[in-house]
Design goal:
The complex is a heterodimer of chains A (about 100) and B (about 500). With about 100 residues, chain A is mainly alpha-helical. Chain A has a domain at about 1-45: Glu-tRNAGln amidotransferase C subunit, N-terminal domain (Histone, subunit A, Orthogonal Bundle). In chain A, about 40% of the residues lie in helices and about 10% in strands. In chain A, a hairpin with a 2-residue loop joins strand 2 and strand 3. The longest helix of chain A is centred in the N-terminal third of the chain and has 19 residues, at about 20-40. By secondary structure, chain B is an alpha+beta fold. Chain B folds into 3 domains: about 10-315, no CATH class; about 320-435, no CATH class; about 440-499, Arc Repressor Mutant, subunit A (Orthogonal Bundle). In chain B, a hairpin with a 4-residue loop joins strand 13 (about 270-275) and strand 14 (about 280-285). The chains are: A mainly alpha (about 100), B alpha+beta (about 500). Strand 3 (about 90) of chain A pairs antiparallel with strand 9 of chain B, so a sheet runs across the interface.
Amino acid sequence: MSEITPDLVRHLASLARILVTDEEVDQLAGELAVIVDSVAMVNQAVSGDVVATSHPIPMVNVYREDVILPSLTQEQALSGAPESADGRFKVNAILDED
Amino acid sequence: MAKEQLMPYEQAIERFEVVIGLEVHVELNTASKMFCGCANNFGSEPNTNVCPTCLGLPGSLPAVNRKAIESSIAIGLALDCQIAESGRFSRKNYFYPDLAKNFQTSQYDEPIAYEGKISVELETGERFEVPIERAHMEEDAGKLTHVGGATGRIQGAEYSLVDYNRAGVPLVEIVTKPIYGAEDKAPELAATYVRVIRDIVKAMDVSDAKMERGNVRCDANVSLREKGAEKLGTRTETKNVNSLRSVENAVRYEIQRQAHILAAGGSIIQETRHWHEDRGHTSAGRPKSDADDYRYFPEPDLVPVQPSLEWIEEIRKTLPENPALRRKRLQEAWGFADLEFRDVFNSDLLDEVEQTVAAGASPQSARKWWTGELARLANAQGVSITELAITPGQVAEIQKLIDAGELTDRIARDVVAGVLAGEGEPSQVIESRGLRVVTDEGALIAAIDKALASQPDVLEKIRDGKLQAAGAVIGAVMQEMRGQADAARVRELILERAK
């Protein structure tokens, strides 16, 4: 069984911007360990000389020409935003400088 | 925030070895974005160059811009890099609203270019070869504006506004290997390196290369170690250094700050820091995430980039003259002294002077215009000199009229002012403002006589050898002629009168 510590769960949760309670941390640690172990079983099914696949179709060099296509209007772009102001998406202040 | 304590620079250099590493982001000047057809355009109304792909809406798919690949390969070649037989894109996952899709499409384990080098010459003539680790492609992020809070600081911000016009604009990130041995020159080397990169991408015309617009941005890594130590010290990465002066100042500041901490027995925290040019110091940002935290994985929606050797060679042929060689060639062609040439080069005016000379002005007159009057006007208007509304061709035209005796330097400045004010071509300004040297000697002599009549003792003084007495008369004549006389000629005429 992989060891998923509560601290690791908290770290992952903060990276994913998900608020978790202490109970959830304990529960998730157990569940994540099972998931990691299950995925690791793939290693048993293939030998070491099989290259990891990131794309199922052997295709390369697919490009488009550098041509401008129509964009959305500002109104369309913001239509799905929960909040907007001054033609921009409005989001909560973030405690981090960009 | 209180300023941190610093060790005097000379003392810091004496005691520690400085190691720097530089990451330069170059925004490409393609017509469209990296992965979609939205315009790559600075200054549009917010969120008008956006589409489902660059907004990260469900179901949208990226498509790679061929020109962006071409420009990236060209940059790689200009930096003497190997071009990857196969490169691929990866997702760099992070949750921050500057990108709506919660990851940045970047390159991780297979960059398009790697293992290069570039020669950097300091003002003293000292040369450094800066080793390039890699140049990889990625997309730029949107622009955040933090609103509210007493001082505009993020801590006090009430909310942030996001404009995604910049999201998806193609970037090439150029990363150096650690640079050793620069010692006290490390800050200057860092700034000069950024300048060299900027000059190269500008000469190649793959980027607008305007630092003030963020087309070229630098993150500076600095670490110190005790002299003779093997192990590298902990580094900090200073972001937000967007002018050459800032690069130099930020590196110098970090050296002094870290030296003070290390000398007091403390340790450096690995973190990103932010440079504040106005206040001249860096401040702590977020603790640096490990690469692991970004959970890079290959972008499943894009296929590998495998440029053919023929394509690479074709691109190689389009590379322009190396900027350093060009400088040598121009200095010789113009016959400028080192100081004169450096003045032009340091003010970024090589192109302007070259074009002015090509349009028919002498090198010296072109230099004087751009580094003198025009630089002064740009400064007064608070714009960069290339933004002045005057072309090298117009400057050359004005200079030709001076050479022909039709304008004096002073009148020429009025013509320039007219051109800048949008009054048209120099000839139109001259016409509409009635600006011509009064070459009618009869009119000049009449004005001189009039002036002498009110200052009758001047001729006597001149005859007594007090030639400076002519000054008062010249002033009166120039006033009468509304400045449009050739002062040297007026003086000649007065002296003739005194004979």
